[in-house]
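As promised in the previous annual report, we have extended the structural survey to additional targets. Below is the entry for DUF1062 domain-containing protein.
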Amino acid sequence: MLSTWAVVPTCLPLVRRRCHVCSADRFRASGKFRVNANHKVLDAWLLVLCTGCGDTAKLTIFERTHVRTVRPALLERLHANDLSLVAELLQDTVLQRRNHISLDWEGAWRLDTGGSDHLDQEVVDVSVRFTARIPVRPVRLIADACGLSRGEVERLIAEGKVVSAIRLTGKVSGDFTFTLKR
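The corresponding structure token record, generated without further manual editing, is:
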């Protein structure tokens, strides 16, 4: 029997970046954009707020870009402060590299197992799907969903009772499957 689990975001992740005012290391997305026009060039930023002092910082989306190269739909979403665009941009690896940031997903996601009827099976095939690129340890997912400790899951992996085509230690952020044998 194949069970499908989904890793689903519950809110926007925090942004890891050092605040120049209070030295806190987390910012939250305000959901607001700033677009500045200077003749025929545009600059756009995503505004983030320090969790320590509330100071505003700007994450560069694009700068000194000719207005004709910006898609009208994107410009409209920026002006409308589209929250789904905020989520898309935060996960953009180019934006993360350009702004020297990373995301903190702690407490910003949940695991949807679709019920607990899979727990009493002798052999369970599980397909884990990610609706966003959320780095999670597979050991933690299996432990939380099956009501086991992480140590027990690691022991089951070592004994070959939990098998997968991917490495189950470390973090993953893409879809994978595994088999649990009891």
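The mean pLDDT is 92. The chain is about 25% helix and 40% strand. These points will be discussed at the next consortium meeting with the crystallography subgroup.
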